[in-house]
UniProtKB/TrEMBL annotation:
GO terms for molecular function: ligase activity. Keywords: Ligase. Gene3D superfamilies: Cyclic phosphodiesterase (3.90.1140.10). This is 2'-5' RNA ligase. InterPro entries: 2H_phosphoesterase_YjcG-like, Cyclic_Pdiesterase. Signal peptide: none annotated.
């Protein structure tokens, strides 16, 4: 599974320990649908980061290879699961974010997050982990209100069969590996 709009590994620079992300990508059709809605609220900046669910946004506390091996191990032992996105939530007034709720699959996301942090990974966000999918961030009040209102009845289900391991290189996030849950082949 690839993440549209984010580079994929090839002959790219060597990864470094200062940035590491682990995410759940969406199926292409669902990602396109949510991207279209996000473009209404955020304009052209919406395409910079494709829709996803973040499991870890941080860095490694050891070498990149040790961190990557840990992520591979966590993925290999985790089972595929279903995520249900239902309606909106917000982090306001603490943070100007409108998101889609993870109504089903949140426990599995939290378990993956905790297992990932049990190894040489550090989560660098200033807030507690809450599985969600951002639809609007740091916008003016009319755009935030529109996002909350229009996405309030949104619902979608998809199977999570893999997680993506990313590095931040050259000004953007780059997919290093797509890792199947349960050790199978990536979708």
């Amino acid at each position: 599974m690839s993440v549209p709009g984010i580079g994929q590994s090839g002959a790219s620079p060597v990864p470094h320990a200062d940035s590491l992300g682990v995410i759940i990508s969406l199926p292409a059709a669902l990602a396109a649908e949510i991207s279209a809605r996000r473009a209404v609220y955020q304009g052209p900046d919406a395409a910079v980061v494709p829709p996803h669910i973040t499991l870890v946004s941080g860095r490694t506390t050891d070498t990149w290879e040790k961190a990557a091996e840990h992520v591979r191990s966590v993925a290999a032992t985790a089972a595929p699961f279903v995520i249900s996105l239902r309606g909106t939530g917000t982090f306001e007034p603490v943070s100007p974010v409108v998101y889609l709720n993870v109504a089903r699959g949140g426990a599995e996301c939290t378990e993956l997050h905790e297992q990932l942090l049990a190894g040489p990974l550090e989560h660098l966000l200033e807030f507690d982990f809450l599985p969600h999918l951002t639809v609007a961030h740091d916008l003016d009040e009319p755009a935030m209100t529109l996002a909350k209102s229009e996405m309030a009845t949104f619902n979608a289900d998809f199977e999570v069969g893999s997680i993506g391991l990313f590095d931040h290189l050259g000004g953007g996030w780059e997919l290093r590996e797509e890792l199947s849950l349960g050790g199978g082949k990536p979708a």
